[in-house]
C-alpha cells in the first residue's frame, strides 16, 4: 500500500496548480516490479490572469500503474542509506473525472463535468529508513519513503474550460507532478 501527497502543474491555456492525495494498493514481486491500482483526489485553480479568468476543479482519478526497479538492490545490504537507495521507472494509465468551473471577473461563466484519460510516466527514488532503525522497528522494516516525479499527457484540450473557437490549442495537455510518498509492505 502506498500513500502519496503531491503537487501538480497543469498547462492548459493557463497554468493550473493542484494539490492531490493518491492511495494505491499493489503487488511487489522478486522480478523488480511493483504493480498497483488505486485512486487520487485533487483540487486546484489557476492564478487570476489579466483577463480575469479563474479555472477551478475538483477531481477523482482511478489509476493503474507500475514501478520498475532499474538501479539498486531488492534487499537491504548494509548500514549505509545511500547503498540501499533505489531508482524506479514509473508508468501508468489514469482516468480523470473532473468537476470544473470557469469564472470571469468572479462570476461563474461555465461549469462542466469532464472525463479524460492520461498516460503517465516518470521516475521515483526510493529512500529507505536507516538500516539500524529498520531492524529495531517492525513497522519501519516494512516501509520506505519515495520521491516521485511524473509527467502526464492528458488526452483533453479543454481541461481549463477556457478553450474557444478563437483560441485553438493542441489535443494533449501536459501536466507535471512531484510527490513525496510512503509505502508499507504487507506480508
Largest sheet: 8 strands, antiparallel, barrel
Domain module count: 1
Helix content: under 10%
Number of E-state strands: 8
Biggest β-sheet: strands ordered side by side in the sheet? 1-2-3-4-5-6-7-8
The DSSP helix count reads 2
Contiguous low-pLDDT stretches (5 residues minimum) are: none
Distance between the termini: 11 Å
Rg from Cα = 19 Å
Shape, principal axes of CA atoms:
elongated
How much of the polypeptide forms β-strand, as a percent range?
Answer: over 45%
Helix-strand makeup class: mainly beta
CATH A-level architecture: Beta Barrel
CATH level 3 topology: Porin
Text of the CATH class: Mainly Beta
The succession of helices and strands, N to C, reads EEEEEEHHEE
Mean pLDDT, all residues: 87
Task: Describe the protein's architecture and organization.
The protein is mostly beta strands. It has one domain (2-184): Porin. The chain contains 2 helices and 8 strands. The protein has helices spanning 131-136, 138-141, and strands spanning 2-12, 14-28, 33-46, 53-71, 86-104, 107-127, 143-154, 173-184. The protein has an 8-stranded antiparallel β-barrel with strand order 1-2-3-4-5-6-7-8. The radius of gyration is 19 Å and the shape is elongated. The mean pLDDT is 87.
Amino acid at each position: 500500500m502506498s500513500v502519496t501527497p503531491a503537487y501538480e502543474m497543469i498547462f492548459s491555456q493557463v497554468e493550473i496548480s493542484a494539490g492531490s492525495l493518491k492511495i494505491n494498493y499493489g503487488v511487489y514481486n522478486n522480478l523488480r516490479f511493483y504493480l498497483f491500482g488505486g485512486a487520487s483526489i485533487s483540487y486546484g485553480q489557476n492564478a487570476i490572469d489579466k483577463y480575469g479568468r479563474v479555472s477551478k476543479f475538483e477531481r477523482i482519478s482511478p489509476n493503474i500503474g507500475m514501478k520498475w526497479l532499474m538501479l539498486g538492490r531488492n534487499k537491504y545490504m548494509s548500514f549505509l542509506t545511500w547503498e540501499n537507495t533505489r531508482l524506479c521507472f514509473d508508468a501508468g494509465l489514469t482516468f480523470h473525472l473532473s468537476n470544473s468551473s470557469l469564472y470571469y471577473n468572479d462570476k461563474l461563466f461555465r461549469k462542466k463535468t469532464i472525463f479524460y484519460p492520461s498516460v503517465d510516466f516518470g521516475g521515483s527514488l526510493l529512500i529507505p529508513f536507516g538500516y539500524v532503525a529498520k531492524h529495531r522497528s517492525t513497522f519501519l522494516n516494512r516501509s520506505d519513503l519515495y520521491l516521485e516525479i511524473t509527467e502526464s499527457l492528458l488526452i483533453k484540450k479543454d481541461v481549463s474550460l477556457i478553450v474557444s473557437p478563437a483560441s485553438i490549442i493542441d489535443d494533449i495537455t501536459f501536466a507535471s507532478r512531484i510527490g513525496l510518498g510512503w509505502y508499507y509492505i504487507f506480508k
